[in-house]
Amino acid sequence: MSTAPTRGVILYGPPASGKDTLTRALTGLDPVFSLFSRVKVGPGRSTGYRMGTAELLEELRVSGAVVYENSRYESTYVTDRPGLDEAFAHGVPVMHLGQVDGVRAVLDGYPADWLTVLLWSPREVTEARSTGRGDADTPARLAAWDATRADLDDNPGFRFDLTIHTDRVGPEAAAEQIRQALTTPRGDLVLVDFDDTLIDRLAAVTAWVTGYCSEHDMGPAVEQRMLEAMRIRADLDVIEALCAELGLPDSPSELWSRYEPELSTLVTPFPGVIEALTAVREVGHQVVVVTNGGAKIQHAKLQASGIADVVDAVCISGETGVRKPALGIFETAAASVGRDLSQGGWMIGDNADLDITGGRAAGLRTIWISHGRNWPGGVKPDLVVSTAAEALTHVGGAR
Questions:
Q1: pTM confidence score
Q2: 291 to 89, 187, 194, 233, 258: CA distances (angstroms)
Q3: 344, pLDDT greater than 90
Q4: Strand runs (DSSP E) across the chain, as ranges?
Q5: Which one, of 10, 165, 14, lies nearest residue 96 by Cα?
C-alpha cells in the first residue's frame, strides 16, 4: 500500500462500536497501520494506552504538547504532540476518539491529512458486546453510548469522511473500506457563495418587502425604496436608516426581529442546486459555503433552504470577523475542511469583486454566475455560466 506518511485515521464511535476490532483488522491488512496509544492517567485498563502520571500530565500541559484532553471513567486521556510525531514517523496512526470536539481539536491542532470515520452500532449491540466480553462497567459504557448519541445530535454540521455500521459490516470489509478511502485521490476544494448563487435571496427579500408594505398599506414608492436599500445587503444599520428615512411604523429593533426569522422561510435554492451539490461531494470534492453576513440569519437561511445538509462546512463573515474579498475568509474556509489554499481549488459566485477577484487573489480557479448579465470587467473568471448548477456540474466533471 502506498500511503503518504502524513495520513492518519480517526475512528469515532460509542463504546463497543468496534474500534479495537477494526484496528486489529487494519493492522492485519497492512502493517503500516498502528494504534495510536493515548496517554492515560488514572485507574482501569492499561492495554492500548501509554500510562502516565499526574506529573507527566502537567508537564504536557505546561509545554503546550496537549492536542486534546478529556476525562472519562475516572481517568484523563491525552492526545499529545510528541506521541503523534512518533506515530506518524512509523506509518499510519489509527486514533480512537469518542467526542466530536476531540475530532475537531485534532483536525485543527495537528497538521496532518486525517480520514475521519464514524463507527456506529445500536445501543442494544453495545450492551450485548460489552456484556459478552465481560466488562465490569457496562452501565457506564451505555451511559457513554447515550452521550455519544447526544454528541452527534449537538453537532449536526460535522460530517465524517466515512461512516461504517459495524453491526452490518464485518471488520475485514470495514478495514478494506478505510484502506480504499485512504488511497483514493481526494477531490478538489470547492468554495461557493450563498446569497444569489445557491439561493434566490433577491426573490425572498422582494417577497418580504412586498408583504410588509402591503400589511401596513404603504405605497409603491416606499416599497421600491426599501427594496433598493435591502437588495444587496440588509442588516440592522440598513434597517435603522430606512426607519429614519421613511418613518416606518416599527422601531428598528422590532423590524429587524421580524425580518431575520421571516426571511429564512422565504428563501429557496435555485433549481438543481441541491442535486448538483450532492453530486459534487459524491465524486470526492469538499464543498464549503463562503458568505458575508450575520451568523444568525445566514445559519437560519442555510437550514431552511436545505443547503446546510449537502455541504461539508460553512464559513460566515459574521463568525470569522473577515469579509470577502479579504484573503482571510478564504483561508478560514479551506482550513474548516483540513485544506490549505496552496492546494488550489475553486471559487464559485455571482459577485465579480467579492467572489471572482477575491477567489483569484486566493489562488483559486473561479466561476462567475452571470444570471444572464454581461461580465462587468476586471480580473476575468476562468469560466462564466448562467447558474450555480451549471458551475457545479462543470466542477464535478473536472476532477
A1: 0.56
A2: 39, 22, 6, 12, 22
A3: no
A4: 7-12, 33-35, 39-41, 50-51, 66-72, 75-80, 92-97, 113-120, 162-165, 189-192, 286-291, 313-316, 346-349, 365-369, 383-385
A5: 10
